[in-house]
UniProtKB/TrEMBL annotation:
The lineage of its organism: Bacteria, Pseudomonadati, Pseudomonadota, Alphaproteobacteria, Hyphomicrobiales. Residues 17-22 form the Serine/threonine specific protein phosphatases domain. This is Metallophosphoesterase. It comes from the Bacteria. InterPro entries: Metallo-depent_PP-like, Ser/Thr-sp_prot-phosphatase. GO terms for molecular function: hydrolase activity. Transmembrane segments: none annotated.
């Protein structure tokens, strides 16, 4: 995240796209009543590498969950610029006829289904223009 933040600061026009991993982190921080669920969901979807990058050992058993929650919260609180960058990330970027999307739809828990819902919505809004939709699964050319 430090490299991302430096790039956002130093390279004019740089944007951070908010994807499901940023959503996992923010949900974990923002929802104290479901932190155990949110943490396990995040860890099952690639979050272990993030935890290790903050020197937090992922829980291997349910009885380690409380320890990991406290350590992960402390690690994120020690890096407020990381959390701020995630909160400020763009949901989509439109640039020279291309739409870049990484975030899932607002009412979907499925990353794949959410992307498809959001793409459908974007294509509808872009009508009758032609645009390339670039997202986390593959690239498609949509024309009317």
């Amino acid at each position: 995240m430090d490299l991302v933040i430096t790039t956002l600061r130093d390279v004019s026009g740089s944007k951070l796209l908010r994807g499901n991993h940023e959503d996992f982190v923010l949900r974990f921080i923002d929802n104290p009543y479901s932190r155990d669920y949110d943490l396990m969901n995040w860890m099952c979807n690639g979050g272990a590498a993030t935890a290790l990058s903050y020197d937090v050992t992922p829980a291997e058993h349910w009885n380690e969950l409380k320890r990991m929650i406290l350590e992960m919260l402390a690690a994120l609180e020690a890096h407020p610029s990381h959390v701020a960058a995630m909160r400020d990330a763009e949901h989509r970027v439109v640039d020279q006829g291309h739409v870049f999307v990484l975030r899932k739809g607002p009412h979907s828990r499925s990353a794949v289904g959410g992307v498809l819902i959001l793409l459908s919505s974007l294509v509808t809004r872009l009508h009758p223009c032609q645009a390339t939709i670039a997202h986390g699964l593959d690239n498609e050319r949509h024309a009317t």
